[in-house]
Amino acid sequence: MTAHVRLGINIDHVATVRNARGGGHPDPVRAAREALAAGADGITAHLREDRRHITDADIEALSELCAVAGRPLNLEMAVTDEMLAIALRHRPHAACLVPERREEVTTEGGLAVAGHEARIVPAVRALAEAGVRVSLFIEPALEQVAAAHAAGAQVVELHTGRYCHLSGADRAVEFARLQAAAAHAADLGLEVHAGHGLDYETAADMVAIPEVRELNIGHFLVGEAVFVGLTHAIHRMRAAMDAAS
Ligand code: PXP
Prior knowledge:
By secondary structure, the chain is of the alpha/beta class. It is built from eleven helices and eight strands. It has an eight-stranded parallel barrel with strand order 1-2-3-4-5-6-7-8, surrounded by eight helices. The site of pyridoxine-5'-phosphate has 19 residues, from strand 8 and helix 10.
């Protein structure tokens, strides 16, 4: 039996629906509270440069909620001076550095750490010195794992988006890349997380990789919540993960 794989719930798309009408409903902070009550191990939120879903006020309220609940807040952020200042002000439990392009629909691809150390290493260092656990969201590629380790990250989150979109033999090849990246990261002493595009089935696949310690899941669960409610969707996800571990 593998140890408990943590489940972080990303509530960004509750804010997407709220922002479609510009009011306060549905409230991502209420969703975060419900997710924690349903057994989520932590809350993840991405404060984007264009504030298309999560806002600064949401981060403020989510920080408070997680502090009171004694559960981790994982702030996903681009490597910019603005986001670094916000992260250093809130000092979340963890920060996951992600690539960000304004025109993208979602986070496309992982952070190119190799070759961009001059920008990434100072951000990693500043966050770590402030007591924030730093994760780098990378493609499951050995050179990116090695670069993340050299950059001083404590965690790598492997991008599972490609895996989730592929099928058949191509999916098997991508699974082998994820396995190899996870093993290499663990050998280097990095904690391994995985996320992007996961559903009940693909989350179970990721839990079967023994080095994976945490999954961060948003879009699928928020979508499922429309049909079965957030609590039930999280219970089903937890059960799918536990059955695979
Ligand atoms: N992990 C990271 C680093 C992400 O950027 C995202 C998307 O915000 C997720 C996990 C969650 O992806 P999804 O919403 O597709 O489950």
